[in-house]
Design a protein that fits this description.
Blueprint (H helix, E strand, L loop, with lengths): L1 H30 L1 H15 L3 H12 L3 H25 L3 H9 L4 H39 L4 H10 L3 H30 L2 H6 L1
Helix pairs in contact: 1-2, 1-4, 1-6, 1-7, 3-4, 3-6, 4-6, 6-7, 6-8, 7-8
């Protein structure tokens, strides 16, 4: 149970951070052509780096800690959210931009009342793609650094040739992934449901 809690906490926190950072960066890159040209090559290079290669380097630079583990998970999970948000911003209908200008809304009002509702489908899709990546990288980081979590238990069971324990842990990981996907699907369905359906519920 402590190992499951450690993994769940890491995935939840890292997925939240990846969502916030991905939406903010994706929104900036999608609205600024200059920023997209400047950051494009760097982001493409970073996106192609496999997470297993990041773990040892991050452990050397930061040290084996919860911060290192979160950094690695966020690094892997941020890309689906960032790319989906960027694509969503670029595909926004020009009428939305003109509406925001004609109403003379403040920056925060434009984001919360016009742009964010229009971008929600793209953002939520990115989060659902990022969720399994966060679980995989969390297990990988725990295996490579022997930090507390399901990954550490899986590695120790494998080393001890405890086949039954390995299969049991795999079932736990599968159930965790299934439950996380079900929660995200339910949240997505609720957020994207018409207002009338929400009132009826």
């Amino acid at each position: 149970m402590p190992a499951l809690i450690a993994t769940v906490q890491s995935v939840a926190i890292a997925l939240s951070l990846a969502t916030v950072l991905g939406v903010c960066l994706g929104g900036l890159i999608g609205t600024s052509a200059v920023l997209a040209r400047c950051l494009g090559p760097i982001l493409e290079f970073l996106r192609t780096l496999p997470p297993p290669s990041i773990v040892p380097v991050t452990a050397l630079l930061i040290g084996v800690s919860d911060g290192m583990k979160l950094f690695v998970i966020v690094f892997a999970a941020i890309w689906p959210v960032l790319l989906n948000t960027t694509a969503g911003v670029r595909s926004l209908h020009p009428v939305l931009r003109e509406t925001a200008r004609s109403l003379q809304l403040s920056f925060l009002a434009r984001i919360s009342k016009i742009f964010l509702p229009a971008l929600l489908p793209a953002i939520l899709t990115g989060i659902r793609i990022a969720a399994p990546l966060a679980i995989i990288v969390s297990l990988l980081a725990e295996m490579l650094t022997l930090m507390p979590g399901l990954g550490q238990l899986l590695l120790m069971a494998q080393r001890n040739f405890a086949a039954a324990e390995v299969f049991g842990l795999l079932v736990v990981v599968g159930l965790f992934g299934f439950a996380l996907n079900a929660v995200l699907a339910a949240v997505e369905a609720w957020i994207l449901a018409p207002q009338g359906h929400k009132r009826q519920r």
